[in-house]
Amino acid sequence: MTMQLLQGKVALVTGSARRIGAVTVRALHQQGATVVVHYRNSANDAKALCDELNAMRENSCLMQQAELADIDSLQSMIDQIISKTGRLDILINNASSFYPTKVGEIKESDWDNLMASNLKAPLFLSQAATPHLKKVQGCIVNMVDIHSERPLKDHPVYCSAKAGLAMLTKSLAKELGPDIRVNGVSPGAILWPEDDDDSPEMKAQHQSILDKTSLNKTGSAEDIANTIMFLVTQADYITGHIIPVDGGRLLNQ
């Protein structure tokens, strides 16, 4: 039997009922971790994922609902996880809001929403988790974005939030070492937004992005999950770094 690298460990992945978060949860679970699926509104997807994983290994997946913009709910979520599992080894700050905010049309609610999910929640959730991660020499992985370095047109608030998360990743690594490692992953063209249509204009926009990507193809959610798994299981001497998973997109203007 192959040794499972995360046997006996507990991992929380925010926004993990679907898409990249769900693929990451499956990867952590495959390596023996007990996984906590956080969701906001996707209760049915979260339940389906947990049912799938618990069928493979009994009591190996928990569901946890929380509104990440509510600071009190973050502490409550950590407290509930500890009461159920007794520990927390891995925190993956994956949840993220993403939508355009054109200058001249930006509302304060856009700022509040995008900053809350992409910057505020990772900070305060990491802070709530710190005492428990410290006990087990745990780690944090933040989902950043290549657009934290290169602005995406019509997305100034989102890009600013992700730029803040990039600096938060480095700052937390400095603050929490040597007990907790903190790193990030910066996806490029991995999954197109769900509300993108199949119009010729949208297809042309997608192709324009791929034309500026050295590997000339989209990546997969598994590419992100594999990088997270590397940081969690094989990167004991890496902290404060953000790994681009972008097919070479950052090489090109």
UniProtKB/TrEMBL annotation:
The keyword Cell cycle does not apply. One of its GO terms (molecular function) is oxidoreductase activity. Keywords: Oxidoreductase. The keyword Oxidoreductase applies. Pfam families: adh_short_C2. Belongs to the short-chain dehydrogenases/reductases (SDR) family. NCBIfam families: PRK09135.1 (NF006598). This is Pteridine reductase. The lineage of its organism: Bacteria, Pseudomonadati, Pseudomonadota, Gammaproteobacteria, Thiotrichales.
